[in-house]
């Protein structure tokens, strides 16, 4: 197992999670991807039953530690890290040998409003990385 660092997309707190070194991560998102199944850090999240891990920012578990953002103001150094909001670590998924593209539900709503004649082929197309922002 190796400690891998992930950054909260909301507050920048650093999560250090023990991971199997060979597993591939797809992205970290503030919302779950549609169709992904998330484990908690206490589950056996490396098993094939899960597509990712839900991390509650600042909530420590066995194998999961938190640190404040490295850029945060020194005056706040006595505060506990984390904003308390959940974010999602998404593993790479394959079906029939092809990588499955995840899509955040909230992102799809926003894209359906912004895609139009003035925005042809904008970010977030089926092959775009739009969900990861
Ligand atoms: Zn946070």
From TrEMBL:
Residues 3-131 form the DUF7969 domain. It holds the Pfam family DUF7969. Residues 101-133 are annotated as: Disordered. Residues 101-111 have a biased composition (Basic and acidic residues). Coiled coil: none annotated. Residues 119-133 have a biased composition (Gly residues). This is DUF7969 domain-containing protein. It comes from Halobacterium jilantaiense.
């Amino acid at each position: 197992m190796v400690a891998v660092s992930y950054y909260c997309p909301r507050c920048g707190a650093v999560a250090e999670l023990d991971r199997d070194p060979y597993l591939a991560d797809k992205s970290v998102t503030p919302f779950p991807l549609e169709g992904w199944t998330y484990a908690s850090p206490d589950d056996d999240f490396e098993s094939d039953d899960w597509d990712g891990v839900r991390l509650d920012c600042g909530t420590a578990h066995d194998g999961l530690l938190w640190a404040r953002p490295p850029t945060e103001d020194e005056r706040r150094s006595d505060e506990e890290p984390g904003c308390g909001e959940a974010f999602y670590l998404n593993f790479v998924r394959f079906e029939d040998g092809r990588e499955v593209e995840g899509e955040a539900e909230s992102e799809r709503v926003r894209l359906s409003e912004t895609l139009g004649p003035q925005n042809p082929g904008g970010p977030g197309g089926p092959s775009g990385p739009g969900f990861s922002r």
